[in-house]
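so i finally got all the pieces together for this one. its two components total, 523 residues if u count the protein bits. some of the lines might not be protein, just check the labels. i wanna see the whole assembly predicted at once instead of chain by chain like last time, that was a mess tbh
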Amino acid sequence: MNLVHIENLTVRHGGLTALHGVNLDLRAGEIVTVVGPNGSGKSTLLKSIIGALKPTSGKVNRKPGLRIGYVPQKLHIDPTLPLTVRRFLSLPKRVSNSQAAEALEQAGAGHLDKQQMNSLSGGQFQRVLLARALLCKPELLILDEATQGLDQPGSAAFYQQIEDVRRNLGCGVLMVSHELHVVMAASDRVICMNGHICCEGEPEHVATAPEYRALFGTGTQGALALYRHEHNHSHDQGCDHDNHLRDAAAE
Amino acid sequence: MSLLDNFLARAALAGIGVSLAAAPLGCFVIWRRMAYFGDATAHAAILGVALSLAFSTSIFAGVLVVSLVIALLITQLSGRGYAMDTLLGVLAHSALAFGLVAVSFLQGIRIDLTGYLFGDILAVGKTDLAVIWASAVLVLVLLSWRWSALMTATLNPDLAHAAGIDPRREQLVLTVALALVVAVAIKVVGALLIGALLIIPAASARALAPTPERMALVATGLAMTAALAGLQASYSFDTPTGPTIVCVAAALFAVTNLGVSIRAAFRKRTAP
């Protein structure tokens, strides 16, 4: 059974149509990435899935009792609120010390448990958010531009962590990102949005689709290939240009 | 002679009761940046006083109903084109003004308005005490029952949604608790200073606590200290009790913050 089944979803707020006619199914064990320009309805889609926004029409069906691990785009913690990492992990459900330690380890944020949330660096903060999302043993992990503010090696490492989590937990992953090249390469399926779903499919398919190119231009394709190369360590002919780029980036 | 026959003992118990409810609630008020919200609800309480005198109902009931209505009105109107502080400024001061005007219409009843603006803790009767403690216990039960959900919703509404918590329901819990605290605190510190009782102990506790729970506990301790020391001071120096309690709370705020700064500076100096 699908984790989430979305049928003909339309969401309006404040007289504006943020989303229209969206059909989408999310399955266990699949990493799905949503890309699209600002204001294309990506966050609206995520908010509809977690139930924070009600559909104007259409439906969003979640598997009954679906456990969602949610990593928000940014989390502002008021300076008047003292909050250790350990305490944060016990929200909303109290977890044992060993569970907390395990989740931090899984998210690559071990040994941070005694720190105050507001004293963490950007990368540490995102990893702690991920650790908290893992603690509910999510069937669906949702990340909303989770690598905002991370540098490129940082976000590449973060997405590597997501792949590990998917492999270990077998959960479905839905993420929104601006970092097209890194994200697309880490995904099984890419959904390109602009108020509706323009095109979707495997990363290679979407990257060459005319709808995608109309939105993002052709520039990202080289970067995508570049990333693939780093991953597969394949050096076939005709990619000298990309390899050259990679070397330049590494310097 | 029982303890409750002594007016000072009743005043002390009233102060402790209100502190028990106001301090932890005050923590949420500052975490959620609702400080002005608390003030608005409290100022509206004067309208509640006027209405309950006009209809000869209990002051507690009148204030509770009006505070609740104003708080719910603010919640409903927020996010409809006006910034929250503008909305609160309009509603709080209008409610206070309407309350003051309404009181002037009450002919044949001579009331001492200062008693409601600044509180009259020394006049707390046994029934008042019962109402204060019942409300305090109710607020504490409400807060501890919803604690985890409240914390999650306070951090981030979307985080709450994803965990199956409705942030609006949690907001309602806080609104009801706030109206209850306002309705009982008006007797102790008065409508104009209720905000102080909510915010100052919580703000003082911030510097001393590593977790939200610890902050709520420390705030409660500080609020009780302020209530008892303020009562004592007002008795010794013959000053108005409500404002004296708030003065002690403010002094505690200064002391805790100064203490923390000095300790930090000292650590910096002795650090290798």
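Residues 7 and 172 of chain B are 36 Å apart (CA to CA).
Chain B touches chain A through 30 residues (CB under 8 Å).
anyway lmk what u think
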